[in-house]
Design brief:
This protein has 5 helices and 64 strands. By secondary structure, it is mainly beta.
């Protein structure tokens, strides 16, 4: 048998992304093509370097118009590939021989729909800083503090506040109706559209309610050395529903008509009034992304004499209706090939029941039973379970007056406080339920809870639920939000940055060969315009970055003039350097300072090119001396040199907030002073007011100074970096890297072990010293981290050997990401949505309607070898799949945006417009050099002309300008209005 999906039609309408019935054409102005008929932009928008703000707006207006037109329309059709195999049923579960005809039913098309420029609806991405907690406020890098409005959802407080804890009982003193967690992160309806507030209607009682849904998480993200990646550590998850009444905060009543203020009265007495029960009104609530009806309610039995408090207990049932309706005596509800027939009704006192017969397709009675009002009864027929529910009955005395409001449930869940979800089955053994009830009209004599306020489904056994079997999630691991039915998945996606957003940084140690700098490249001699030769004595260190332009920047000298040195590399003369004079006894500044012999540059002199584009060297030949640091290694004067490294500070170049690289060196000096405060590295230690002690104590611990002094290494160096690890309220948080260098002639090495007198590690082989931004690891705490470590910014400590250290430094602040989506949507590509539709069904995605018009198929006849051959078996559909592919049949019409990564920046400055063939020059000749050049042959009298919109060079050059900046903005609007398709 072959199944061939010949045609799947689709209507896509209601959005500007759709093309008209006319074929797509290019976007033109005059004879100049701005966007070709393939949707590719051909022109650049040129903005003057000296342009005013309105000029920039004008350029954006033109660029935006070009972007909106830069797309091509393609027709996409679903086409089946592969052939279904239908074999003889041999009854032995072996691969059957021969072929046969297979019945085809329930045909669906699974579509992935991408709307250019549209956000992926029904999903939420949570971005958390590396090393930060999942609590009430992300990216603040603050520890969990009880009572802190940034991190704490306190227990025991009111349940009606906007930021109420989901488990509070409103009774004070930390009271709870379930778990006692209160440092949580909430995903609400403004973040995840399926959680948007729902309006609930009880038509039978003319009551309205509001439903609020939230997801609550507890955990963090941090580096784990086992997978060598940033993991998401999830400790707790809760899905909660909170119901509110119309104008009150009680919830949904058990009975809609009370006796006095007792909203459980309809359940009581010898003659219960089931028609007053909410559970008999088919009230639909949203649960796990689908509509369910409340099929039963049993409130908590705990006494409650307060209207503002909650108690836990009781249970509620939610059901999915397969089919429902009112049937008269003798009528039936059909499902599959069965009929559930109402034979009669019986009443005994206050108890009424429906007498039911289950009939097969031939009218044979398979089962008979009776189902009480408000009850659900299960019927197991040929391996399938059917749940028959009776909402209410009318046991009249005549044939026509007997009827029942009934339903067949495809699923019914029992949510019982303190039990696993649906406790009669084992499908959700790792999810527990907490219910919160209120008592409207509570008093000393009215203590019965009667309103369902809160439903919570939660788990703290994450490892048993996670796809990876651990609380620590690696990229791709997910957690189902309840086990059955699985509606949503919470997936950990790992970091949002890769090595494409990182740039290498290397420290390379040359141990044996001196480094000569020729006279043409060397620094200027003091007071002259003559550059002189210098030579760095081995061992020395080259520091270089894979970035471009001004990666490193330093205040230095070039000749006698203070200047800013900038480059992608610099050299540290860890063993000193020597420089020639200019023939008249003039040496570079600092290399003849009255202390060292003439021409000798001090140990630690830094040589850096004056600019990124040249090789000429400037230098900083002295270190800044800090206060004395005393410790078991004796007195030592700290000398340090700072190099600005703005890429790792997001523009900042400060040790405390990030963006600085520091080279530090200690020298033993007698009698330097008695001040114990270390100033190197910005007084960075446990507390900034504490003295720096040499034993590496918890308080007042210097990141490098005291530890190096303790090691008593007179000529040792440290290379340390501060990188920004925060944003917004945590913008001044930084993390720190430190590498030690042991100078010992040809055996000089980065890779060595040393420790304080107290035994604390300073540096270790194959490790770096790292200070945390916190709070997962306490801010300011120090640890040695091995190769592969990923910092709290997202940089990678990649490799260390005796002579080289390599990092990959993050050019932007990294985030760990969690992704919440439906099970179906979690399988879609980024920016797309997945929908499974049957024939005639439709869906709307970002305003675009997609409808499956028709699915047709060709079924080949069964070929059977002999009359004695067995009946044909079921089709093997594993070889068959449907894909969306280009075609010209009736199909989904999609607009495909141009891949701008292949094009570069659409808006450029006039100084960068050299060689650009097709352009639109925005702004007058006073602010835009390109405009000035284009108008040079036909000067414009701006005293009489307000605006110019002109094709100056046919087919390639256009000027859009005004006498004033505001006129340029009007000219841009005129230009856009004159664009046309051809």
């Amino acid at each position: 048998m072959e199944v061939n999906l010949k045609k799947m039609g689709a209507i896509v309408a209601g959005a500007t992304i759709l093309a008209s019935s006319v074929g797509f054409a290019g976007l033109m102005f005059g004879d100049t093509t701005l966007v070709d008929d393939n949707g590719a932009p051909l022109a650049k928008v040129v903005l003057g370097t000296d342009g005013a703000a309105p000029d920039g707006v004008a350029a954006a207006l033109i660029a935006g118009k070009m972007v909106s037109e830069a797309y091509a329309v393609e027709e996409l059709t679903a086409q089946v590939t592969g052939t279904a195999v239908c074999g003889e049923d041999t009854g032995d579960n072996e691969t059957p021989a021969g072929s046969g005809t297979c019945e085809i039913s329930d045909e669906k098309a699974k579509l992935q729909i991408t709307v250019p420029g549209g956000a992926t609806e029904g999903t939420y991405t949570l971005n958390n800083l590396i090393g930060d907690l999942l609590n009430r406020r992300l990216t603040d890098r603050e520890e969990n503090v009880a009572g802190d409005s940034d991190s704490d959802y306190p227990l025991g407080t009111s349940d009606i506040s906007e930021n109420a804890n989901p488990f509070t009982n409103g009774a004070g003193a930390g009271g709870t109706i379930g778990p006692a967690y209160h440092f949580l992160y909430r995903i609400d309806g403004s973040m995840f559209s399926p959680f948007a507030d729902q309006q609930i209607v009880d038509d039978d009682a003319a009551r309205n309610y509001v439903e609020e849904q939230n997801l609550w998480l507890k955990g963090d993200s941090h580096y784990d050395e086992s997978p060598e990646e940033i993991v998401g550590d999830l400790r707790f998850l809760a899905y909660t529903i909170k119901f509110g009444g119309s104008g009150d905060d009680y919830g949904i009543p058990v009975c809609t008509t009370p006796e006095g203020t007792d909203y459980t009265d309809c359940l009581l007495g010898a003659d219960p009034e089931a028609h007053y029960e909410t559970a008999s009104h088919k009230v639909k609530v949203s649960f796990l992304g689908e509509q369910w009806v409340i099929s039963d309610m049993s409130p908590s039995m705990a006494a409650l004499n307060s209207e503002t408090q909650l108690v836990n207990g009781g249970w509620v049932k939610l059901a999915k209706e397969s089919i429902s309706g009112v049937i008269n005596q003798g009528e039936a509800l059909p499902v599959d090939d069965l009929k559930f027939q109402l034979d009669d009704l019986e009443a005994h006192g206050g108890v009424t029941a429906a007498i039911i017969s289950v009939l097969d397709a031939n009218g044979n009675v398979l089962k008979k039973d009776k189902v009480g009002e408000g009850e659900t009864k299960e019927f197991s027929i040929e391996g399938t379970t059917y749940r028959f529910h009776v909402y209410k009955v009318a046991p009249g005395y005549t044939f026509g007056a007997k009827w029942a409001d009934v339903a067949i449930y495809s699923k019914e869940l029992k949510l019982e406080d303190g039990q696993q979800l649906d406790p009669d089955y084992d499908n959700n053994e790792y999810y527990e339920v907490a219910l919160g009830w209120k008592n409207k009209g509570a008093s000393a004599t009215d203590t019965q809870p009667d309103f369902l306020r809160t439903i919570a489904v939660y788990s703290d056994d994450i490892s048993s639920l996670a796809s990876g079997g651990e609380e620590q999630f690696e990229a791709g691991d997910y957690l189902p939000v309840v086990q059955d039915p699985v509606a949503w998945k919470l997936t950990y996606q790992g970091l949002d940055i890769t090595n494409a957003e990182r740039t290498y940084l290397r420290y390379d140690l040359e141990r044996t060969t001196d480094y000569p700098i020729s006279a043409s490249r060397g620094p200027y001699a003091v007071g002259t315009s003559d550059r002189v030769a210098c030579e760095l004595t081995a061992p020395y260190v080259e520091v270089k970055s894979g970035g471009s332009g001004t990666v490193f920047e330093m205040d230095g000298t070039d000749g006698a003039t203070a200047t800013t040195l900038s480059s992608t590399k610099f050299y540290v003369a860890t063993s000193g350097a020597t420089c020639d004079d200019d023939g008249l006894g003039n040496y570079p500044i600092g290399c003849d300072n009255g202390i060292d012999p003439a021409g000798v540059c001090p140990v630690g002199t830094v040589f850096m090119p004056v600019s990124p584009s040249g090789n000429e060297m400037g230098l900083q030949s002295y270190y800044q001396a800090s206060a004395e640091c005393t410790g078991t290694g004796g007195a030592g004067a700290w000398l340090s040199q700072t190099v600005r490294f703005s890429e790792i500070g997001d523009g900042d170049t400060d040790w405390l907030t990030g963006g600085l690289l520091e080279v530090a060196h200690v020298q033993s000096v007698a009698g330097v002073g008695t001040d114990d405060n270390c100033t190197m590295m910005g007084n960075l230690r446990g507390t900034n007011s504490s003295p720096c002690v040499g034993d590496g104590g918890t308080e007042g611990r210097c990141f490098g100074q005291a530890r190096l002094a303790d090691a008593a290494a007179d000529t040792d160096f440290y290379f340390a970096m501060s990188e920004k690890a925060g944003v917004d309220s945590s913008n001044d948080f930084a993390d720190y890297h430190l590498i030690g260098l042991d100078l010992n002639g040809v055996d000089s090495t980065f890779n060595y072990d040393t420790q304080t007198a107290g035994g604390d590690a300073i540096t270790r082989e194959d490790y770096e010293l790292y200070m945390y931004a916190g709070p997962v690891s306490n801010r300011g705490s120090i640890q040695t981290e091995e190769e592969g470590y990923i910092s709290e910014r997202g940089s990678v400590f990649d490799d260390i050997s005796d002579t080289s250290v390599r990092y990959y430094m993050a050019d932007q602040l990294g985030y760990s990401q969690w992704y919440l989506a439906s099970v179906e949507q979690s399988e879609a590509e980024a920016g797309s949505v997945v929908r499974t539709l049957g024939e005639g069904e439709e869906t709307t995605v970002n305003g675009v309607t997609v409808k499956v018009l028709e699915i047709t198929e060709t079924v080949m006849p069964c070929t059977v070898g002999t009359a004695a051959s067995p009946a044909c078996g079921a089709a093997d559909m594993s070889p068959v799949s449907a894909v969306i592919m280009p075609g010209n049949a009736e199909s989904v019409s999609a607009s495909i945006p141009y891949a701008y990564s292949n094009y570069g920046n659409l808006v450029i400055l006039d100084k960068d417009a050299v060689g650009v063939n097709t352009l639109v020059s925005v702004g007058g000749d006073k602010v835009n050099t390109v405009t000035a050049e284009l108008l040079s042959g036909s000067a414009v009298d701006w005293s009489t002309t307000d605006k110019v919109v002109r094709e100056v060079v046919q087919g390639s050059k256009i000027v859009v300008a005004g006498a004033e900046a505001e006129d340029t903005l009007e000219a841009a609007q005129d230009f856009v209005n004159q664009l046309r398709r051809v």
